[in-house]
Amino acid sequence: MCQYGGETMKTLCIDIGGTGIKAIILGPDGAALTERARVETPDPAEPEAVLKIVEELGKGQGEFDRVSVGFPGVVMAGVTKTAPNLAEGWAGIDLAAEVGKRLGKPVRVANDAGIQGLGVIEGKGLEMVITFGTGMGSALYIDGRYVPNLELGHHPYRKGESYEDRIDNAVRKRIGKERWNKRVRKIIEQIEPIFNYRRLYIGGGNARHIDASRLPENVTIVDNLAGLLGGIKLWADG
């Protein structure tokens, strides 16, 4: 049984998304100790409104020893730098410190796609994660080591649009499942010869809309719950 930071530590894992904020407590072996709780992301998703929900979710889950937070943007040393699918005002927020003050426990924060990948990767060679939800997240791993803050979704793709502009949730609803799936496959075709990953994992709330039968053999669709389960691995060094 794999342990992360002691035999008794319980980790509260929070996943902040553009449409929902989720929470669960994991035991030292990574097993879920509580049912996943979910609250709609406030609109506008300003820092104080989001932090209030995080605090309420955390206090409603029960006892825990530490907190992992997945955030939809660039995070450096616990401080948020971007949040393209939330409201303005997130640049420079010390999210780790703010959550720590409200919940009274040590906190680690990382990009949400990065955490999702930690919950599913095999730790061999170059692996990559892309997530389809409100927007598009991405993460890269080399022999299991996370390379933080790859923001592929906002890179120019074609005709003045970014990758995210082509396949975000609003576009999926507008163009329909079949055309959206075609765009997803085109994006995979574009990034494979750039990154030359051994395996690509696709997660996020909209992964369930993807036709897995038409994906390459080295592409795997993963459960969105991985966005929470990967949180315990932020503490792999204790």
Structural commentary:
- The protein has 238 residues and is of the alpha/beta class.
- The chain has 2 domains: 11-111, Nucleotidyltransferase, domain 5 (2-Layer Sandwich); 121-221, Nucleotidyltransferase, domain 5 (2-Layer Sandwich), CATH 3.30.420.
- The radius of gyration is 17 Å and the shape is globular.
- It has a 5-stranded mixed β-sheet with strand order 3-2-1-4-8. The chain has a 5-stranded mixed β-sheet with strand order 11-10-9-14-15. Strands 5-6-7 form a 3-stranded antiparallel β-sheet.
- A hairpin with a 3-residue loop joins strand 9 (126-132) and strand 10 (136-142).
- The chain has 7 helices and 15 strands.
- The longest helix is centred in the C-terminal third of the chain and has 19 residues, at 177-195.
SSE topology sketch:
Layout: E1 11-16, E2 20-26, E3 37-40, H1 47-61, E4 66-71, E5 75-76, E6 79-80, E7 93-94, H2 95-103, E8 107-111, H3 112-118, E9 126-132, E10 136-142, E11 145-147, E12 156-158, E13 161-162, H4 163-167, H5 169-175, H6 177-195, E14 199-203, E15 219-221, H7 226-229
